[in-house]
Batch of 3 targets.
Target 1
Amino acid sequence: MAQTIDKLEQIHIGKKGAAPIAAPGWAGRPADRVKLVDCDVHHSFHDPHQLLPYLPKFYQEHLLDQGLHLPGAGYANTPFRRTRPDIKDPALQERDFNFSLEFTQKELLDRWSIDIALLTGSASFYGYAGLPDPDWAAALCTAYNDWTIEHWLEKDPRVVNAILIAPGDPSLAVKEIHRLAHRKDTAAVMMPMQSPELFGKRLYHPIWEACAEHDLPVVSHIGGGSPGSTPTPSGFPSYYMESRMTRPSVASAQAASLIVEGVFEKFPNFKVALIEAQQMWAVPLMWHMDTDWKAIGDQTPWLKRLPSEYFREHIRVGTQPMHEPPQTEQVYQMLEMLHADETLIFCSDFPHFDWNDPVTVLPKLDEHTHRRIFAENALDLLRISDDMIEAVVA
Amino acid sequence: MRRIVVAKVGEIPAGERKIIVPFRGRAGIGIFNVKGRFYALRNICPHKRGPLCTGEVAGRSTTSAPPSLTGGFVGYEREGEIIRCPWHAWQFDIATGQCLVDPDVRVKTYPIIVDGDELIVDVDVNDFVKEG
C-alpha cells in the first residue's frame, strides 16, 4: 500500500512556464551590522511610456512619436530573453521580466537577505549612452532617475541608486549629478562602460570632478557603445559568447586610461567600479603596468606611485560573472592575486539568467575576506550614510 | 521498501511537469512526462543549486561543422527531452539526469513506477544511489 503526499504543498507547472519554488535560502544576518551589499541589481520600467511623466513636453512627443530608438549591438542570442525563467512577476505579462520593486523585494532582497541593493538600471536601456542626440540621452537619464526615485527609492530604504548619466555631453552629466547629489539614496553614478572616449580623457574630467565633489563613486556597468564604435579594434564578434569575452579588454582599457591619465592624482578621493566585466583581468593589468611604470614611467611623470597602488585604492571590480576554475583551490589563488579584500564587490546581476547568488558565487572564505567582498568593500565605495545603514539593520 | 504516490498519471500530460515540494528535502523533485514516459529529478542543480526543475524543457541545437556555404547546417534535436536550468542555462537529459555540458555532473534521479493511474516513487531505492 503506497502512502500519499496529499498533505504536502504541491505546485503544478503548466505550459505557461515555471512557478516560483523555494530557492535554497541564505541564513539571516546579525542584527547589528550590514552583512550583504549587492552592487548590481537591475531595475526597469516594463513600458517606456512610464517615463512620460518625467519628460518635458518636447521629449514626451519624441517618445510617443519615435519610441526610445536606442542603439544596440544586435546580439539576439541571450537565452531566456536574458532573465531567469524560474521566477514570474504576477503583475506582469508572460515573458515580461521588468520586475516591480515588490517582486524584487520578494525574490531578491527578502529571499537572500540583501541589506543594501544598488540599482543599476536596465542593461537593455544602456544604449542611451550611444544615442547621437546628447540632449535626448540626458533627458532619458533624468526621466529614468526620477522614475526610480518615485517607484523604488522612496519605498524601501534597502535600495539605493546609481544615477544614470550619459557621456555624450559631459556638461549635462555634471548637471544631473549636481541635481541629484543631495539625495541620500544617491549612492553612486552610473555611466556605461563602453563610452565614446576612454574614461581617462580630459573631456570627462568635469564629470569625475563633480563625483569627487559629492563623494560619489562611478559604478560603470558593461554596455553602452557609441555610434560606429565596435567592441574590438577588429570589429564586431559574430556571436554573443564572443562578445562577452571582449568585456575584460574594455574594462582593462578603462582602468589603464583612468590611472595613466592621472585622474586619481587629480581627484584623490574619486573611485570607480567596473562591473559585469569579470574581475581577473585586473591582476595582469596591475602586474604589467607596474613593470612598465618602472621602465617607461618617465613618459608619464605625473604618476607618483606604482599603477597597482592607484588600482587598489581607487578601482573596484564586481563578482559577476565569476570564474569557475577546475580546482576550487585556484579560486583562492585568484582572490589573493586580485587583493580581493580590497578590490572585489559582490554583484548579483539579478535578475539575469547568469546571475550569481551570494551563497554559491564563491567557495567558503575566511571571515575577513568574506566580510570585505560581501559588504565592507561596497560600504567603503558607495556613498551610504550612517543613518541609512541604521535604517536597514534596525 | 517505501513507496510514495506523487501524482496521478492524468495530472501530467506529455510535455508537462509537476513539482512537488517539499520532498526528500526542501527543494523537492520534479516529475516530467517526456513523450509518455515519466521521470523524476531532484529540484536542485548540481552546478549552483538553482531550482533546476523549473527551467525550460527544450531540445538542443546540433551541427557537424562551423557554419559555411556548403555545410554546417544547424539543426535541432531531442525536442522535449532536455531541461535547461533557469540559473546559467546548463542542460540536463531528463531521462538520465546526465548533464550535457559537463560529463562529471549529474542530477539525482528517482525511478518512477506507474501503478494503474498512480505515479509512485520508491524512495528507499534511492538511499543506495550516490548523490552527485
Target 2
Amino acid sequence: MTATSAPTGLPFDETTPRKGALQTILSSDLPRSKVLSFILLAILLVLAATPFLFSGSQPISTAAKICVFIVLVASYDLLLGYSGIVSFAHTMFFGIGGYGVAIALERLGATWTSVGLGLAAALGSSAVLAVAIGLLSLRVRAIFFSMITLAVASAVAVLASQLSDITGGEDGLSFQLPHALRPAFRLLSEPFLGTVVNGRILAYYLLFFVALGTFLLLLRIVNSPFGRVLQAIRENEFRAEALGYRVVAYRTVASVISALAATVAGALMALWLRYNGPDTTLSFSIMIDILLMVVIGGMGTMYGAVIGATLFVLAQSYLQVLMEAGSTALSGIPVLPNLIHPDRWLLWLGALFIVSVYAFPGGIVGRLRQGRSSQA
Amino acid sequence: MSTTTPALETRGLTIRFGGHVAVNDVSCRFTPGTLTAIVGPNGAGKTTYFNLVSGQLRASAGQVLVSGQDITTLSPSARTRRGLGRAFQLTNLFPQLTALENVRLAVQSRADAGWSLFKIWNDRRDLIEKAEAVLERVRLSDKRHVAPKALSHGDQRKLEVALLIAMEPKVFMFDEPTAGMSVDEVPTVLELIQDIKRRGDATVLLVEHKMDVVRSLADRIVVLHNGSLVADGDPAEVIASPVVQEAYLGLEATRA
C-alpha cells in the first residue's frame, strides 16, 4: 500500500469533494460496501412497497414497527455510537411522544390539530427534560450519568402509570385517528394494483416518509461539522475541550436532538397502534431491545440502525412462526422439537445476539465494511 | 517596565494540593515575539503551571490574564477561544480519527464552525485545505489517512504540534515537545518551533529539559524550583547564575 492510495477502509475520505444528488441525500456518508448497499436498498424498497406486496395486517404492522424502530435506534446511535453517551432514558422520550399524541387525540378530538398540538407539546417536554438531564449530569462521570438517566426514566414510568386520569395508567389510552387515517377512509374509489388504498395505508405511508425523513436528517447531523465534534468528544473529551469545544454544550445538544427524534418515533408508534400504553413505548424491555439493535447493527454507523431494527423486529415477529414450523416438522424426534418450541424463542434470540456480538464486534455494518476494505 | 500589554500574564498564581504547594505565587509576563523557556528539575511545577494557565487546573489564588483580560475563572475551551494554545506532554490526540481529521478538527474549532448542524462537513473544502496545509508544514502529508494509534511516537508529537499550529493561537505552549523522540526526529520539531517564532508575533512558552534545546531557542529563561520562580532573564545570565547552578543546572552545566 502506498501512502497516497485511496483510503477505502478508512471511516472517512477527506480528499474527495462531494458530488451528485445521492451524496447530498446521504450527506456524503455512503454505505461503502456493495453488500450493505444492496441490503439497505432492499429494505427501503420492500418497506416502500409493503402495502402492495403483502396482504393481511401482520406484514404491514411489522413494516410500520420497523420504520418506527429505525428512527428510534438511529437516534440512540447518535448518542451511544457517535457521542459515547450511555443513556437509559431513551424510551422515556419515546413514551413522551406516544403519550403526547394519545392524550391530545383522546382529549381534544380526532383532528389533525390535535396531532400537531400533541406532538408539539411532547417535543417541548422532551427538549426541556433532555436539557435538564444534560446540564445536571453530563458534567459527572459517564457511569453516574447513566444511573441518573435510569432513575429519571423509572420515575417517569411510575408517574405515567400513577396518573391514570391523564395517561390511562397501566391500561393506556385508545383513541380515534383523524378521518383520513381511519380504515374506512378510501383515497381512491377503485383498488390500485389490487389493493384498496384506505386510511390504514395512508397512515403507513405517513409513517414511512416521516421515518425516512427523520433518518436522513439524523444522517446529515452526524456528518455535519457538529457531528464531527461529537466523535472527537467520544474519542478524547479532554482534548476536544482543550481545542476550544464546549464539551457539555455539545453533549447536551446531542441529547436534545436524540430525544426529539425518539419523541417523533413515539408519536408515530402511537398513531399506528391507535393506542399508547406503558408496554408499547415506556417499558424498560424496549430500552434493552434498542441497545441490542444498535449493537447488532453496528454502533456509530447510522446504517446499523436500519439493519439492526429490521432484523430484530423481523425476528420478534416471525421467529416464533419459524420455530413453530420447525418444531412441527421435527415432531417424533426426541428433544429437538422441544428445543425449538416457539416458547423458547427468547432463548434463541439471546443465542443469536451472543453469536453476533462475538462474531461481529463492529456489528453487521462494521463487518460488511471490513470485508470490503480487505478486498481493496 | 514595558508599556505594551503582555500576551500572557500570571499574577501570584498559586495552587495547593492539601498541604503541598505545587505552584507558589508565580508572577510572570510574556510578551509577543518572545520565546520563553521554563526550566526546572522534575516536580518543580512546570506542567502544573501550564495546567493552571490553560485551565485544566483551577488556581487556589492568583490570576491569569490574556491580553490584559482576566481569564482565571474560564473553562479550558473558553481560554482556547481567547487565544491560548497548548500542546501536551503526553500525546493527547483523537486516536481513531485520521491525522488529517485530527488537524481538521482544530481548524474547524478555529473557524468556529462546530455549531453547524445541517451542513455536510465535506463541503467545507476551505477547512480541509487548511488542515492539509498544516500537515504539509509538519511534514506529515503522506500520513494524512493514518490514525494516531498507528503513527510512530515522533509522528504523534509532530501531529500534536500540528494541532497547535492549526489553532493559530496568540500564545503557544509547548510541554516538552521533544520528549521521548529519537535523536534524528528532534530537529524537525525544533525547526517547527523556530518557524512559529519567526512567523510574526507569537508568544511562545516552552517547557524543556534539554539545555542545548533551551540555549538554541530561548530568548529568555524562567526557572521554577519547588513551585516558586527563582530566576528570570537572559539565557546566558540565568544559566550562569549561582542559584540556578545549585538548584538545577549543576549537573547539566558540567555535562554540556
Target 3
Amino acid sequence: MPSPFLTPGSTAGPDTVALLHLRRDQTIPTILRTFDDQNLGYKEGKVSNTRFGSFPHSTLIDQPWGSQIAASKVDTGSRGRRGPSKRKADELDTPGTTTGADDDTPSLSKPVAAGSGFLHLMYPTPESWTLSLPHRTQVVYTPDYSYILHRLRARAGGTVIEAGAGSGSFTHAAVRAVFNGYPQEQPANKKQRLGKVCSFEFHEQRAKAVRQEISDHGLNGLVEVTHRDVYEGGFLLGDPQTGQSPKANAIFLDLPAPWLALKHLVRKPASGAESPLDPNSAAYLCTFSPCLEQAEKTIRVMRQLSWLNISMVEVNHNRIDVKRERIGLDCEGIRGATVYPKTVEEAVVKLQEDDERAKRLRQAHYDGKTDDPKVQEDKTRSSKESAIPASTGPSYSQGRLIHRSEPELKTHTSYLVFAVLPRDWTEEDEQKCRQQWPSQKLDAPEPKGGKSRRQAKREAKEKCMEEIKAGENAQPTVEKVEEGNEA
Amino acid sequence: MHSSIRPHQFVAVQLPSEQTRLVKLVPNTIVNLGKYGSFSANQVIGRPFYLTFEILDTPESDGYGLRIVSATELHAETLIEEAEADGEGDDAEAGDGTPLRTNREIVDDASTQRLTLEEIEELKKEASGAGKDIVAKLLESHSALDQKTAFSLAKYTLRKRKKYIRRFTILPLDVNLLVNYSLQERDAGRTMELRDEHIGLLGCLANVHHGGQVMTDPIPDVKPNGRYLVVDETGGLIVAAMAERMGILYPRDDEDLESEEQHSTNEGKEQTKEVGGAGSKPYRRIRPRPMSAAGNTITVVHAYSQPNLSLLKYFGYDTNNPDESHPLHTNLKTISWLQLVNPESDPILSAELPFMPAQELAELKPSKRTAYFFKRNRWERVKNVVNEAREGGFDGLVVATLLTPASIFKHLVPRLAGSAPVAMYSPTAEPLVELMDLYSTGRRTAFITKKRELTQNSSDNEEVDLSSLYDEFELDPTLLLAPTLHHSRVRAWQVLPGRTHPLMTGRGGAEGYLFHGVRVIPTADHIQAAGTFRKRRKVVTSTPTTDQDVEMAT
C-alpha cells in the first residue's frame, strides 16, 4: 500500500491516514475507515468528533485531498447511553449472536448535513504530523530536522540511522528525504539502492508504538525499527554481533550520551563486527544534545575517533505574527484597536474639544441648567462624535501592517554537532589509484581557439544527416533523431 | 554519488585560509592554488572526499607529490591539550604558586617578532615541510611567546598556519557547499542571500521529495507523483536544491549502473535499440526527449524568454549544451510566464508547423528537413509542457523571486492540487508581510461575504460575474490555509577545550523569511463556521466582530 506521506494520490482512500485540520495548529490524525473499527456504535460507521462538529468517515473517504468538508448531524447521545463497556458485557452474555451480525451488515445510515461546522481534509506530511503526533518524548521540530537532514546529505536512495526514535517526528522526515521507491515494487532482477531509515529505540513500549505507527502509515519496508540499547548493542540490524550492516550514509543520534554510541560508528569496530557505515561513501553524523557539556564530551570523542569537519550550531527559529495595528481616536469600538490620538493634530483637536465641553458644563452648572438634555449629552458622550473624520475603506485594509515574533518562543532546542567520517583509504587502494591515474602524466595545455562553436555544430549536423540516410535505407519510418539539434 | 573524486567533476578545494575554490578536475592537468602551491589533478582523482592533502616539497619516486594528512594529525593540538588538561586536573591553574598568565605584560608591537620581513620571505623560498617549518620558526623567534596566554597562543599559531601551511581539502560540490560558497565567496545578492537553514526549511515546508518509481504500466487516470512548480531567481540554486531532494540533481554514474537501466525505461526513454533486422545496421541511440518525464519533475516558470539556471553547470547540467543522460534533461521543464498565462500570443506556440508525412519529408532538402524537425519538435515540447502546466494539479510550489508575491500566487496557487503546500523565500520581511495580509482573516471574511452576495443576487443558471470581486481582492484568500511566516537562523559555536563560545562574528545582511501555506479546495456551498464562542465574547467586552467567528477556519 502506498503511504499517504509519500505518494498521497489525489483522493483520500479508505484505510489511509488523514489529518483533519480544524484550525491553525489544531489537527486530528485519524485512519479513514469504511466501517466502525472501534465498534463505537455509530449508525454512520466510523465518526470523528471534533469541537466543530461530527464527521462520519463516509463523508471523507474518496474526497479530493484539501477539500473543505461540512459537519454532519450525528446522534452521539443515544450511543453514549449504551456505552462501550456495557456493550462488551452484552457480548459476553450472548456470545456470537447480535454483535457479529451487526458488523456484517454494512447498511450504514447516510449522514445528514449539519447546519454549521467544517474542517479541511489533508494528507499527512512530516511537518503536519510533527505538529499533531502523540508525544512520547521531546519532539525534534521542523526547523531543526530540516536543517539536520540538509546537512546530513540525506538524499533519495540513502540510508539513515536514527537512534532514539522517540516520538517519530524525525523518522517521518528522514524517510521522506531518502525515499526513492517502495521495496515491494522493485523488480527482483534490478538492483537499485532504495532509501531506508533504520531506527533504534531502547524503550520497549516506544519502539512498539513507533513500529505500529510505521505500519499504519504504510512505511513498512522503508523504516526498520529495532528495539535496542545502542550504547551496548551497536547499530547492526538483527543480531547485535553478527547482524547485517545497514550501510548507513547518515546518522542522527538523539541520545542522552551520544559519545557512548560513537564507538560503534567506526570503519573497523574493535569487536570485529561489521561496520554499520556504508564502505563506499563518507558518513555524515549529527548529534542532538540540549546541554553544552554533552556536546563538548561528544566532540572530544569525535576527535579521538577521527571524525572531521566537526562543527556545532544551534538553530533559532520563530514564527512571525502579522496583523494590522490601528491607532486613532476614531477607532473606538473596533476590536484590537487602540484609542489614542494618532497625530499631534488629532491630539490638539481633542484637547480643544474637551476644553470647550468642560467650559459648557461649567457654564451650565453656574446657570443651574443641568437638566438640559444638551448638557446631559455633553456629560455622557465621549469624543466619539468629535470633529475627527472617521477613516474610510474596508476594515481589513485599515491601520498599519506590522509583524513581530509569536508570543512564546522556543529560545533553545538543542546543540547540533555535525561531523563527517571519510571512506577508509588503504595503501592498497592508493596504489591501485596511482596506476589508474599516473601521477606525472600531463597533457599539453589545450590550444586556444580550436574549433569554433559554429564549426562544431556544422560537423555534428553533417554526421547526423549521414546517420539519417543510413537509417532510412534500413527502415522507412522516420525516427526522431534530430531533436538533439534544437539545442 | 559522492563515493570518490571523479574526473571531469566539479569539486570544492578548501584552503587553510578557509577560502573555497570550485575546480573542475580534468585528468592530466595541474590545479593551481596560488600561494599554497599547485598539484596535479591525477593525484587526487579516484581518492575519497574529505581527505586533507599536504603538498610535498619533493615528490615520491613515482612522481606522487601529495601526502594524506591523517585526522589525528589534524586534531593533534586539541587532542594534546585535552590530554594535558586531563593530567593536570581542574585546579592546576588556581593553586601551587604558578600564577595565572594574563595579557597584562604584553606590549603589542612589531618588535616582538624578531624575524624581519626579508627573513620570512627567504624562509618561504627555502622552507620545507609544507610551511610547517615557517610556522615553527615564527613561533620560535617570537620574543614574547612565553608571556602569551594559552588563548592568544592558540590564536597566533592558527593565524600563522593559515598563512603559510600548504594543505588543501577536497570536498564534494553539493547544494550545501554551493550555498555557503555563494554566500561567502561570491556576490551573495545573486542567490538572494540564501542560507542552509532556509534551503532545508523551504524544501521541507514545500514537502519536496522523490515521487517514487513510475509504474511500468501506468494506469491512465492516476496522476503522476512528485510534480513541483518552482519560481527561481537565484540563478538555479533553488532548482538545484529541490532537484537534490528529488534525486535528479547528480548525473548517473558507473556505480549506479544497475539502476540506470531501470530508470531509463521507466522514464520514457530507451537505451539503445537495434534498428532493422539482419544485423546490417549499427545500433542507433534513441535520445531521451527533453522535458518528457511524467512524474518527479520540476517545472520552472521564468520571466525572460530563457530561464537563468547557470548554477546547474556545477552539477553537470548546462542548459546551453544539455547532457542527455543527465536526469534533469527529462525531468526539468521550463515555461515562461507568457506561455503560462497567455499561450495564444507566445511566438513558439502560435507557430505550429503542419504535420508532414514521412514521404514528403524524404523529398525535402536535408537542411529544410532539419529545420522542420527542429521547429516541429520544439513546438511539440513547448505545447506539452504548457498544456500540462495549465492543467495544474502540482504537488507543491517553491518560490524565491523578485516579482511581487501576489502576482505569482494569483496564477500559480490555483494550479496546485488540494493539500499541496506553498513555500516562498524572501530575503526581507516586507513582501511576505504584505502577502500574509492578503490572506488575513478579515480579508477572507470580507471575500466570502461579498462572494455570497454576488452569487445570491444572480439567478441560478446564470454564470456569476465575479469580476468585481477580483477587482477588490487581488487573489482568492480562501485557497490557502494556515498562512504562516517563519524566520530561522543558525548560530555557530566554537568548541575547543575550555574555550567554548559562539563565534564572535558572523555574516549580516538579509535575515531571510519564509512563507508557508497549504492549498485547499473550498466548497461551493456556504458553510457556517461552528463554535460561536459566545462565552468568550461576553468576557471580552469590546465589540464583537466577524473575525472571531471565522478564526476557526484558519
